[in-house]
């Protein structure tokens, strides 16, 4: 015999979808921020190469 199905109120499902959507948007924003920071750093390193004899 299988376990009985649990009824989940539609309002709870909608709330969960909204929360997951918000978290997904926040994660994508964080990823874009990291990519922009990495590109900025790479551009800086190209414009300002390490000097010889100086540890970086």
Please render the helix and strand layout as text.
Blueprint: H1 10-47
Task: Outline the structure in words.
The chain is an all-alpha fold and 56 residues long. 68% of the residues lie in helices and 0% in strands. The longest helix has 38 residues, at 10-47. The mean pLDDT is 90.
Give the tags.
single chain; 56 residues; mainly alpha; 68% helix
Mean pLDDT: 90
Quickly count the helices. 1
Amino-to-carboxy terminus distance: 66 Å
Q: How helix-rich are the residues, as a percent range?
A: 55-70%
- List low-pLDDT spans: none
What is the 3D shape?
rod-shaped
Helix/strand/pairing class, anyone?
Answer: mainly alpha
Q: Main sheet?
A: none
Order of helices and strands: H
User: Strand fraction band?
Assistant: under 5%
Rg measurement, Å: 24 Å
| Count of beta strands | 0
Summary, kept brief:
This protein is mostly helical and 56 residues long. The protein has one helix at 10-47.
């Amino acid at each position: 015999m299988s376990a009985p199905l649990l009824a989940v109120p539609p309002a709870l499902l909608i709330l969960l979808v909204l929360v997951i959507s918000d978290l997904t948007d926040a994660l994508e924003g964080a990823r874009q921020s990291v990519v922009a920071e990495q590109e900025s750093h790479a551009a800086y390193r190209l414009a300002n190469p390490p000097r010889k004899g100086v540890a970086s």
